[in-house]
Amino acid sequence: MGSLTLTDLVEVDLSKLGTAVADWKKAADNLKKLAGNADSGMYAKSERARWKGDNATVTRDFVRKTKKEFADAQAQAQTTYQLLEDAHSELVGIQKKVKTAVGTDAANLGCRIEDIGGGAVRWFFPHVRGDTDERTQAQRDAAQALADRVAGLIGHASEIDASVARALGKSHGNDPNNFGHTNYDSLDAAQEERAAELAQKSLKLYKEGKELSEEELKELRTILKYNADDQPFATKLYRDLGPEGALRFQAQISLDGTAEGGTQLQLARSIQDSMGIALATAQPKLGDEYTQELMKLGRSNLDLEMLGNRIEPKGYQVLGTLLRHGTYEKGFLDKVGNDMIAYERELDGGAWSRPDGSYAGMKGFGLNADATGGGGWDPLTGLLEAYGRNPDASTAFLQANVAGPGESMTNLDYLMGMGSDGKGEGARTWIPDATSPMTAGEDKVFGKDALGHALEAATTGMPFDHGPVSPHPEHTPERLAIMEKVVNSLAGDPKLMDDKMADSMGRMAGEYMPEINNTLRQSDSFADLYGNPTSFNAVATTEFLDTIGRNPESYAEATLGAENYSATLMHQVVNNPDGFTGNPADNLRHIAYGTGTVEGILGGARHDEIVTKGQLSDQDYNDQLQKRADMFNTVFGSTVGLATERVPIAGEIVTGVTETVVGEIVEGAERNTSAETAHNAGESSFKARENAVDQALNGLSTAGTPNGVDPTVLRQEVDTRTGDGYDHGKELQREAKDHYKRNPPK
What we know:
mainly alpha
């Protein structure tokens, strides 16, 4: 059967399949009775009879064979029933999701999803009379995401169809005169058997210098893609392959795919993704013995059993590529992560194998088949990505000390660069994760990006790639301790923030706006305005903001976070005044001053950076602001480090406030990067101050005016207080720089 289409899936009458399921259930039940009767009746009597002559052999053997055929027939009928029942259940669910997507979801977006054959679909916005037909990037992205979701559901249905057909064929055996072939107790079992069969075949072929055909790889890719998150499937697959076989298979597929490129690389990329998700899914059921074996292999050279292979990576290097995908349990990460760090430190950074010069012609050759994230030779990149998706595990890991008593260096100290003495003693040396010798563009340390993700998760309590979350998790003492250490460390040594960590640092600052505002507040009387959170060291906080303000990405994230927090807090003060002490108008003026202070520090850092790097740097800052605002509009709350829920009273996210602020930021960025703007530091500084005032006024407009307050007067006061706060922030920034020049960290 060819590929299913959208039309097939929407229009097929699955009630007929449901009827077939009921019929096969009845047949299996009836055959079970017949098989039981044959066993207790005919067979039992035959075995007790005292046959003589030919009856002693021919008749008895015939009865035994007949009894077996009844049992085999029942088993085959039961298999058919189980396969069809599972298929019917899954297809009904998929069909329902598809109908909702193309009907309700598409209509809500104002678009349509069209069948273009072969399982593919396209989206379009139908013309409406009087409409300009102009669509935002956020609308186009949402329509594409919907089309991708529908295509994925069609692909899943096609995989189920193919798996059922294959399993029924094996059960039937193409023998009209004999029952008793392969039996399955579920569709999962049939799918896992085929996936394990192909993986085992791949392992055998690589020994001989051969490999699976492209069609076989596509089949394996499809089975894994749609079943990796199914625990029975994933657990059985990893048990069948075993720890060593699973790592060897993953390494072989990725090395071959990255060396070959093209379709093979695309297939390897998908298989790696699915194998990682499958391991995360299976791990809770695999047990500690399986984990211990992975850890043992992690410290050993892995014989890849590939004809002509010239490298034996450590098991942890291969495991690291799998850890990039899926959400792993804390207990598993605790063991594997700390052991990986301990092993690396035992060998003083020389733990991990790297290709030699004989691989120079194979650009991109590596253990990691992903499009991003390096070659996979540094396993900590994958490990830290896994921690980025498990906040509790990341918090515990970064605070852990694998060296034991007498050693003051935590994993955070080791990885971020503070070392045991705060100056880098014993800290990790990060090396470019690329094929050796490196070619142009391969000199990036991808692990620092992953470290940023782990820090995000550890400090915010949310996975780094989270979607909308409300309310945000509490800033526990453990999370606060890590954040405070990051603040103090970057203040003392700005070089600790690698550029690839900048976006994460900006989002962390955005999430901790209550603490940052509380630290820099003008008066103790306003502490409860921010929910009485922990205060950091004021000078260190200022220098921390200065550090992240010097990178366009972290500047954009922190600025969006500050302005969104301010707007939402204003809204709460006006609309829920009983949730705060003090006069609402006074609170609004203080919010304006406090946010102005934060933006003044960030703006001062931006000013200094533009002075150093020139005109193009200003363009970078504004481009990043617009980029992140666009991203935010696409998926609310998933890409911008906002503290919109972290106001000191309960309530829903004020989406209207957020949309207004983000929209104004986009317009402001467009104005600031226009050809008419003089791109010099002074002009840029003025524009940043002007933007801070504009955003405060936008927040006030959305919030409204407290009862009994003159809106014109209040608006002017918020304007003035924001500007005053901005100027104060710039002064704090200059004072902090002077402080650290006079008092460098010891």
